[in-house]
Specification:
Layout: H1 2-49, H2 55-82, H3 90-112, H4 117-173
Helix pairs in contact: 1-2, 2-3, 2-4, 3-4
Length: about 170
């Protein structure tokens, strides 16, 4: 009888652990899906806001350019990391660019809701210049990562070509 009770207790504990793990996994998956959906909706809203003429679409285009460039820079660093390419300070620089972009995006978002057209007209050139600095920096960083990757790949291809030529000569002389 005690053995049956002990076995039932062990089975209960195992079932509770499995259920708890399953619930935790479901919660994490649900959070990730909600986050991905909200990011997709945010991108869609931003793209829609960037169409047209006037101050609001101008602000929307600046925000979209900022987001697009930073996403591309983040993906370039991730791709370079996956390929084992030299990164240097690129990850830290992308982090700093993202921080600057977040602050700039918040100011642009506030400006997009500004009802006074004169305030927007006066603020837009300065913010546009800041967006250009951030986007140009992100593009330069991406270009450097691509160039370092192509230099490494070109050297590997050259070595592969030399090895193939050497093997071809060796096979012909046999």
């Amino acid at each position: 009888m005690e053995e049956m009770l002990g076995l039932a207790l062990v089975l209960f504990v195992v079932a509770a652990c499995a259920l708890g793990t399953g619930v935790a996994v479901l919660v994490l998956v649900a959070r990730r899906l909600v986050l991905a959906a909200s990011e997709g909706l945010g991108d869609l809203t931003l793209r829609a806001a960037s169409y047209g003429v006037g101050r609001r679409p101008s602000v929307g285009r600046l925000r979209l350019a900022l987001r697009t460039e930073l996403d591309a820079a983040r993906r370039a660093v991730a791709a370079a990391r996956e390929q084992g390419l030299p990164l240097g300070d690129a990850p830290a620089l992308v982090g700093r660019l993202q921080s600057a972009a977040r602050e700039l995006d918040a100011r642009l978002r506030t400006l997009g809701r500004e009802p006074d057209a004169d305030v927007v007209r006066r603020a837009l050139p300065g913010l546009r210049a800041e967006v250009e600095v951030v986007t140009r920096s992100a593009a330069d960083l991406r270009g450097a990562l691509l160039a370092s990757g192509s230099a490494v790949q070109a050297e590997e291809l050259r070595a592969l070509g030399d090895a193939c030529a050497l093997e071809s000569r060796a096979l012909r002389t046999r």
